[in-house]
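Is this the right way to post structure tokens for a design question? Let me know if I should format differently. Anyway, here goes:
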């Protein structure tokens, strides 16, 4: 697997290079560039683009987001920067991840993991699906993009919505459930009550609970009682049977 780095600070590029080797020694960093012009010329001249681009945002001759206006990017892109305000623009360019400096080894490992398991290099395809394939989460100084199909359920408490993924991780966000409900495919996700939106495959068991109500257990498990109201139970059963 091949990669190139855009970074105009020598110490930062050396550290990133070292971390990449530690995280995945199979990644060969072919070039390290310090300017947008230089990396743009390289990408234009080489028909076979590298598998991954590691791009700093601010470099000697401008903002690396300008690169997308110069050349057609087919590589997976991981942004590495000290600035968090460009995250939304970065993900609009189909960034695989957006890492804030100083880069943590475990976060880089996750980002590279996402880049390596994604489909082979190709141009982004326009989808007719009106629902989100990825959701950008920003909470405090932390920014993360989570694939919708990785979300097991979302639990809301004290005005914080927690994303639980199938691998057992939990990520807080400032989203409201009513907004998330519109983003997620209703054929796969169901709003159980005021606190939960669940993925179909996260439901591990369904039990009768007090007359016509049902109790749900989730996987990954959560230490919260999840009972669906009588009115919602009928809708829930129809959703299960579609």
């Amino acid at each position: 697997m091949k990669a190139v780095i855009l970074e105009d600070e020598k110490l930062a590029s050396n550290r990133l290079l070292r971390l990449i080797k530690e995280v995945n020694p199979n990644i060969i960093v072919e070039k390290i560039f310090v300017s947008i012009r230089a990396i743009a010329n390289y990408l234009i001249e080489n028909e076979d683009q590298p598998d991954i681009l590691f791009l700093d945002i601010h470099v000697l001759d401008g903002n690396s987001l300008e690169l997308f206006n110069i050349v057609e990017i087919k590589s997976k892109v991981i942004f590495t920067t000290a600035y968090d305000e460009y995250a939304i623009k970065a993900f609009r360019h189909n960034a695989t991840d957006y890492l804030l400096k100083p880069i943590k080894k475990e976060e880089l490992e996750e980002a590279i993991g996402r880049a390596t398991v994604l489909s082979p290099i190709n141009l982004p395809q326009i989808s007719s699906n009106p629902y989100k394939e990825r959701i950008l989460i920003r909470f405090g100084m932390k920014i993360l993009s989570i694939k919708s199909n990785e979300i097991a359920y979302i639990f809301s408490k004290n005005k914080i919505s927690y994303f639980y993924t199938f691998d057992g991780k939990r990520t807080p966000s400032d989203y409201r459930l009513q907004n998330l409900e519109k983003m997620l495919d209703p054929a796969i996700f169901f709003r159980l009550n005021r606190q939960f939106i669940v993925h179909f495959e996260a439901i591990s068991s369904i039990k009768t609970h007090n007359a016509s109500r049902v109790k749900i257990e989730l996987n990954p498990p959560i230490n919260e009682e999840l009972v669906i109201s009588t009115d919602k139970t009928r809708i829930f059963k129809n959703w299960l049977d579609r």
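Format looks fine. Someone answered above. Worth noting: Residues 133 and 149 are 7 Å apart (CA to CA). The radius of gyration is 21 Å.
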